[in-house]
């Protein structure tokens, strides 16, 4: 039965936030000049995370809401370790999981700076669209975890007290973290994030908001077609192997995906997350993943100063957040006209984006994004203390509001599947030696 606790917003108390309690407790050894770079330095042992949050005394109840006011997060850039790829997986044309890189593609630079790619081509006859009514939650990542448990646990087994401890604090999709990073600047779309603690690890899985469902069900034909354009651009620029050329005559199937799984640390939060990667550098001498990965994007061509400013203030924020998180260093952007014809292609280096936007007034700041995300994760840790796969804390945010939450037991929001819970809570001998079948 659902047990709704406080789910009301408290806008009249903008400072009733968790962040104030914690402000001085984090080590912040990167100043703003370090933006765009990662930190290799490790935390000292004394700075490891505390289950109830770094500065919440065990007896005091957690704060009920978290403010998103930007000025609260304008401080030094938090420690963000260089993300390390610990694995990858592929989803085929029928969305089946494979614990390998069969769907990884190779970037082929367009021959001309004005390639005239027609992004509308194939929309009617050569397009298989993933069914976005199906909510996969964390399932693919959980499959990857079961198939690679020994890899993950070998690093941490000595330190772990729980039989199913993974050695990470947070498991989630990169896309959910992207939403957190951009929250202080988001004015249109709210979010719902379901959180469950199991074996000391917090699993974070998005729940579709009512507004998002309505938007999805009421997309115009034009919008539906424009969503295809981004994938079509990938098809024009990506090949199946390092020796071959792209095949623009083929079918675009958005079920297919290659996902990287990375491990990193944001302040005291040990993160394991996965994100889709569009392609890699085809040079065999390219650096190892994720440094050889490339994100493909499309955007309307920029013709006026106002358009340039909007591109910097809104689009580059999303692009930066998405690629910075997994350590993908480059974006290749195809600028198109209103008819879906690509008129120019440009490369953006993630580490140079903060320079590019610095003269823009009213612009976003990487440090605000990262500090907010860090603070949200601390808030979640302090709130979600009950270790139970059937319990979900649903964190909710709407633009111009604080983040609040409600608690749900055995509800529609429970998202850890039985096959995962069973496998993770089975005996220790199975845990280290058993390799579950890949489905
Ligand atoms: P663009 O990025 O060129 O817009 P991604 O860029 O994250 O790899 O996603 C690939 C494409 O999926 C996007 O290409 C876009 O076409 C489509 N897409 C992804 N997220 C979307 C969203 N929220 N709304 C509409 N289209 C989206
Ligand atoms: Mg892309």
From TrEMBL:
Segments for region (Disordered): 1-66
Provide the top EC class.
hydrolase
The residue ranges of the RAI1-like domain are 81-421
Instruction: Provide the protein's localization.
Output: Nucleus
Q: Which GO terms describe its biological process?
A: NAD-cap decapping; nuclear-transcribed mRNA catabolic process
The cofactor(s) it depends on are:
Mg(2+)
What UniProt keywords are attached to this protein's entry?
Hydrolase, Magnesium, Metal-binding, Nuclease, Nucleotide-binding, Nucleus, RNA-binding
Pull one GO CC term from this UniProt entry.
Answer: nucleus
Q: How is the cofactor bound?
A: Binds 2 magnesium ions.
Top-level taxon of origin: Eukaryota
Q: Does the keyword Cell wall biogenesis/degradation apply?
A: no
Q: Where is the composition biased (Basic residues)?
A: 1-12
- Principal subcellular localization: nucleus
Q: Is-annotated flag, keyword Thylakoid?
A: no
Enzyme Commission no? 3.6.1.-
Reaction(s) this enzyme catalyzes, per UniProt = a 5'-end CoA-ribonucleoside in mRNA + H2O = 3'-dephospho-CoA + a 5'-end phospho-ribonucleoside in mRNA + H(+); a 5'-end FAD-phospho-ribonucleoside in mRNA + H2O = a 5'-end phospho-ribonucleoside in mRNA + FAD + H(+); a 5'-end NAD(+)-phospho-ribonucleoside in snoRNA + H2O = a 5'-end phospho-ribonucleoside in snoRNA + NAD(+) + H(+)
One example GO MF annotation = metal ion binding
* Record's compositionally biased regions (Basic and acidic residues): 17-35
The cross-references to Pfam families, in alphabetical order and at most eight, read: RAI1 (PF08652)
Stored PANTHER family: DECAPPING AND EXORIBONUCLEASE PROTEIN, DOM-3 RELATED
* Assigned protein family: Belongs to the DXO/Dom3Z family.
Q: What does this protein do?
A: Decapping enzyme for NAD-capped RNAs: specifically hydrolyzes the nicotinamide adenine dinucleotide (NAD) cap from a subset of RNAs by removing the entire NAD moiety from the 5'-end of an NAD-capped RNA.
Q: What is this protein called?
A: Decapping nuclease
**Species for this entry:** Oncorhynchus kisutch
